[in-house]
Specification:
heterodimer, A: alpha/beta, Rossmann fold, five-stranded mixed barrel, five-stranded parallel β-sheet, rod-shaped, B: about 50% helix
């Protein structure tokens, strides 16, 4: 090659910058590079600027908004990351920059890191607080389910709900539960069921899967929708061991969708058994109560004695008293009469002259005493009879009537007193005897077993 | 919340009726009620047992799907493709 006298080639700065850029991009190209993030700044534009460094060197780096939004986790200072990008020159500042396309955390997987970060953030906001948890209704009338339609999950939940509590209505909001945008669909499903209204509890979940498969339940949008739900939410991600963010936010967590179905409704057979127990307890308690009342009545009856018998006794006593009064009076009368007779005989015997005035005087005195004794005896007898009559009156059925009782008699000629509802039939005519007056009535119905 | 009717009928939520029943059983078991109130409580309790039992027995499962219509509105459709 001929070397001509070289005219010095003068480049503009822009041309040089373009040359360097080409050299860099062609010579280095896209690379994976490991380093630690420092000096991270988020611009209002959404781009993320940071410095990637190791012990000896550092490089400015930029992560454009689109790339930053695609990250599941949030890069932060001090974080060890693996980035994929190209090194180039930013001509405006003549600065060497690493243009980052992808970023992954080192150590923990990206999803795991995102999970830990979101968990820490929402936890700090208090979204997992125990006092936020709402109780689930014991007997929901309607259950909303946000999950994928088709497949075993919804079928298994229906089976469990039908077996335990078929009374409850089920509204399913079908959503995609994995893949890009699944979190948004789950969140919108929760919102849609809240808007629908009439639901008492929600189940949000899916069957088991890998951390990636379950990712929709670790997304912030899902967690926020659960927290914002007016209806209590049960998370049901089929993942026995690990928790999802949805599990932490939800009002209750079930290890699988079928477990969630069993959790939200009571078991019909258990409730039926409980009802049978309640009925037995009611009958026992009432029987005890009636027995106690009956025992009390019996006790009082014994203490009171039989009123009819007392009336009878008293009547007999009055008869006795009357007889005694009569006997006493008659006896006295006879005695007085005998006395007069004796005196008259003695008078007759002693002759008229000397003893006559004295005899006449004694006769007059005896007559006086006789009248006096008669008057006294009668008064005493009257008082005794009156007192007895008053006591009789206090115990008579008429006094009962005065206290508000009524006597029921058959309305036939015999007018028998009715003591047993069993002797009556519907349509029978009866007469009611009150303290004042009477009334006629007809029987509507009888209940011979009923206790008073 | 609807008041349960006097015969333990279907008004009111199941749990309200059940709570009322539990309260009646407790009151009656304490034995402090006057006899007439005991009887009334017993009758109410038995009515509740009957009505709750009937509610347990009568219903069959209803499943609907909340779908988005072409106009973007949410509509309820019965789900019947999954019956055994």
């Amino acid at each position: 090659m001929l070397r001509a006298e070289p005219a010095p080639r003068i480049l503009t700065v822009t041309q040089l910058a373009a040359l360097v850029r080409e050299a860099l991009e062609g010579g280095v190209g896209s690379v994976w590079v490991a380093g630690e993030i420092s000096n991270l700044r988020r611009a209002p534009s959404g781009h993320v600027y940071f410095t990637l460094k190791d012990e000896q060197s550092q490089l400015d780096a930029i992560l454009f908004r689109s790339g930053a939004q695609a990250l599941a986790f949030r890069p932060a200072d001090g974080m060890e990351v693996l980035v994929y990008g190209r090194v180039s020159l930013y001509p405006a500042r003549g600065a060497l920059q690493l243009y980052v396309d992808r970023m992954e955390p080192r150590g923990l997987g990206a999803l795991q890191l995102a999970f830990e970060q979101l968990k820490a953030r929402l936890g700090a906001e208090g979204l997992f607080a125990a006092e936020r948890k709402r109780p689930l209704p014991r007997f929901p009338r309607a259950v909303g389910i946000v999950t994928a339609l088709g497949g075993a999950v919804i079928h298994d939940m229906r089976t469990v709900l039908r077996k335990r509590w078929p009374a409850c209505r089920i509204v399913v909001r079908p959503v995609r539960v994995q893949g890009a945008g699944a979190g948004r669909e789950v969140a919108e499903g929760i919102e849609a069921l809240n808007r629908l209204g009439g639901l008492d509890v929600l189940i949000v979940g899916r069957g088991g899967g890998s951390l990636e498969d379950l990712w929709a339940f670790n997304e912030e949008i899902t967690a926020r929708a659960i927290a914002a739900s007016d209806i209590p939410v049960v998370s049901a991600v089929g993942h026995e061991v690990d928790f999802t963010i949805a599990d932490f936010v939800a009002d209750a967590r079930a290890p699988t969708p079928t477990a969630a179905a069993a959790l939200v409704v009571a078991d019909r057979e258990e409730v039926a058994a409980g009802l049978a127990r309640a009925e037995a307890a009611l009958r026992r308690a009432l029987a005890r109560r009636v027995e106690a009342a009956r025992a009390r009545v019996t006790g009082l009856q014994r203490a009171l004695g039989d009123p009819a018998r007392r009336v009878h006794d008293l009547g007999q006593r009055i008869d006795d008293l009357a007889a005694r009064v009569r006997r006493g009076l008659l006896g006295r009368l006879a005695w007085e009469r005998r006395e007069v007779t004796t005196l008259a005989a003695r008078l007759a015997r002693s002759g008229p002259a000397p003893g006559l005035p004295r005899a006449r005087e004694r006769l007059a005195g005896a007559g006086e005493r006789l009248r006096f004794a008669l008057a006294m005896g009668l008064r005493h007898a009257r008082a005794t009879v009156e007192q007895a009559a008053r006591r009789l009156d206090a115990l008579s059925p008429l006094a009962c009537l005065a206290r508000g009782y009524a006597i029921v008699r058959r309305a036939d000629a015999a007018g028998a007193v009715v003591r047993d509802a069993g002797t009556l039939a519907a349509g029978d005519a009866v007469a009611l005897v009150f303290a004042r007056g009477r009334a006629r009535a007809r029987i509507d119905a009888t209940d011979p077993e009923e206790e008073p | 919340m609807a008041e349960p009717d006097s015969r333990g009928g279907p008004a009111g939520r199941f749990e309200d009726a059940l709570a009322e029943l539990e309260g009646i059983v407790q009151r009656l078991e304490k034995g402090e009620l006057p006899l007439e109130e005991s009887l009334a409580a017993f009758e109410r309790g038995i009515a509740l047992v009957r009505s709750l039992g009937q509610r347990l027995a009568e219903v069959e499962q209803r499943v609907e799907v909340l779908l988005k219509s072409e106009a973007g509105k949410l509509v309820l459709r019965p789900l019947e493709n999954d019956e055994e």
